[in-house]
Amino acid sequence: MYNIQTLNKIAHCGTDLMDKSKYNVGEDVANPAAILVRSASMHEMELGDSLLAIARAGAGTNNIPIDKCSEKGIVVFNTPGANANAVKELILTALLISSRKIPAAIDWAKTLKGQGDEVSKLIEKGKSQFAGPEIKGKKLGVIGLGAIGAMVANAAVDLGMEVYGADPFLSVGGALHLSTKVKYVKTTTDVKSNKEIFENCDYITLHAPATPDTKNMINAETIAMMKKNVRLLNFARGDLVDDKAVIEALANGGMAAYATDFPTDALIGVEGVIALPHLGASTPESEDNCAVMACQQLIDYIENGNIKNSVNLPNVSMAMSGDAKVCLIHRNVEGLINKISAVTAEAKINIENMESKSKKDMAYTVLDVKGSTDGLMEKFKAIDAVLNVRIIK
User: Fold this and answer.
1) Please, what's the b/e burial string for 341-353 (b: 16 or more CB within 10 A of its CB; e: otherwise)?
2) Helix (H/G/I), strand (E/B), else coil: 274
3) β-bridge pairing 2-6 and 23-26
4) Cα separations (Å) of 205 from 139, 237, 274, 296, 370?
5) What is the DSSP letter of 322?
6) What is the CATH superfamily name and number for domain 84-275?
7) What gap in Å lies between CA 335 and CA 323, rounded to an integer?
8) pLDDT, average across residues 71-96
9) What span, in angstroms and rounded, lies between the C-alpha atoms of 259 and 273?
10) Residue 95 — φ and ψ, nearest 5°?
């Protein structure tokens, strides 16, 4: 029986996939083999020796201590793309309401309550203060062309916008999903390489991950490179934007609007800021999609040793044809495969198939073996740089 701890409410359509004869799922389970989490912070949590994996029902993993998990040989999964459509729809909403000053117009209309027959006249007299441009024919810059960024870019093309896209890590698969009408801008990890987008686009939407390199990528220097009255959308991560620089730009006319799903105390109430309470993935469809993907990935790893969509380990999937699968999480160091092979040779077991891949400093090796695996786990654990070993039969 595997104990699965839930730190947040996880949709039943996901947890119901876990066979109750194999899995005990709940908030208060002890010694979990896996943890399902959404937004709860795990940085202060004790990660027990029984813990094999953590699955984040969402894309961002800032609430999970990735480095600590890697050192303990714990796989961290996320669910990229599961909430992409929900976030895309909210960004398109923000694109429109940032143009037409719709939130301010709604608030103003509420103040007319009680004016009786004068309401119509007051509306006609006051509506001009909320006028704004149409988005058709305008230029949109999309910085980051992952699952969400690509969907936003394609939708904006369909809405008649001229779309620029930039992503230094754009994959072949990602490129294939991108409309041919999107103008691809070659960039590097240096944010200033987005100069073409900054100088030309009327709207800019951010879809970059939160890393030390991207922290405050939108700052006074990069805002100075943008068109006057640019409209900035940030539904990726709050840390991408220097709030102080945005507030100054809104005050001096350098920026027309800033729409964000990550309001801070400094931003709330500032004219020109459209602050939403982190609604990006807040749809029942998105929550269901994330829960299903997270649970499927946990099941496949626990039962089969397969890894897909891990943030700290490579994707590895292999069917078992022998007597057992040996799954080793280890540091990515030279000569380790030779040491692993030496252990199997000494134990006189045959490797039917093997797959080994690395991801930065971490690696995952899976052996499909024939023969007795008695005592094998202790021998593998004795190898320096091996962090975790499982034998699946």
Assistant:
1) eebbeebebebee
2) strand
3) parallel
4) 11, 11, 14, 31, 53
5) S
6) NAD(P)-binding Rossmann-like Domain (3.40.50.720)
7) 26
8) 96
9) 6
10) -60, -45
Q: Is 219 helix (H, G, I), strand (E, B) or coil?
A: coil
The 8-class DSSP code of residue 159 comes to T
Residue 378 CB-density burial (10 A; 0-12 exposed, 13-18 middle, 19+ buried): exposed
Burial class (CB in 10 A: 0-12, 13-18, 19+), 132: middle
Angle CA 124–126–128, to nearest 5: 90
pLDDT, residue 135, reads: 97
- Is residue 155 within 8 A of residue 179, CB to CB? The reply is no
Q: What is the largest CA-CA distance in the chain?
A: 93
Structure tokens, 193: 């390489």
List the structure tokens of 348.
């006189």
Q: For residues 231 and 257, is the Cβ–Cβ distance under 8 A?
A: yes
Q: What is the mean pLDDT of residues 204-231?
A: 95
Torsion over CA: 275, 281, 282, 285 (sign): positive
Name the residue with tokens 């929550």.
287
User: Could you tell me the pLDDT band of residue 143, with boundaries at 50, 70 and 90?
Assistant: very high
**Regarding the domain delimited by 314-393, which CATH topology (the fold level of the hierarchy) does it fall under?**
Alpha-Beta Plaits (3.30.70)
pLDDT in tens, 16-53: 999 999 999 999 999 999 999 998 999 999 999 999 99
pTM, 2 dp: 0.82
CATH fold match for the domains 84-275 and 314-393:
no
Residue 172 pLDDT class (50, 70, 90 cuts): confident
Residue 85 has pLDDT above 90, yes or no: yes
Mean per-residue pLDDT, 319-333: 95
Whose tokens are 């908030």? That residue is 27
